[in-house]
Amino acid sequence: MPVKRLKVASKAFKGAKSLLKSSKVAPKPGSKGGPGAGKDFSEKIKDAARQESGDKCVFCGKDTIRSKTPHPDRSNIDHSISKKNGGNNTLENAQNTCQTCNLDKGAANTKEYLEQYRHAARKGF
Ligand SMILES: [Zn+2]
Which of 33, 52, 69, 113 is 20 to 30 A from 80, alpha carbon to alpha carbon? Predict the structure, then answer.
């Protein structure tokens, strides 16, 4: 029966979708230089970075929220390579983080921050 086949297909699709959803978002190595070096992201890039991450922080995996006022879980679009270090405003350099991780990262590049973060995780923070 065609109806039965359809049901099976939709079940498989749901499985694949939940797999996609649960896959962890990885922090980006970043991108620097070019005309967008040291500049802020456009709203379009920020939205794309949020979408890529499934609205999760790339560092701690927490769901991020949209808020106009400061909040620990607020979505901050981070320059993977900091502006100070010539990081540019392309999507390659944009990643969704929670405010807590973003403030913690400060002007560090992702690579440096991850080293600190892993170190802290080992210490049980
Ligand atoms: Zn976070």
Answer: 69
Neighbours of ion ligand 1 (CB under 5 A): 57, 59-60, 98, 101
Q: Per CATH, which fold does 29-122 belong to?
A: His-Me finger endonuclease fold (3.40.1800)
Buried/exposed 37-47: b ≥16 CB within 10 Å, e otherwise = beeebeeebbe
Q: List, for residues 35-89, the tens digit of each pLDDT value.
A: 999 999 999 999 999 999 999 999 999 999 999 999 999 999 999 999 999 999 9
Sequence ranges of the domains in the chain = 29-122
| CB 75, CB 65: distance < 8 Å | yes
What is the token pair recorded at 16?
Answer: 């694949």
pTM of the model: 0.77
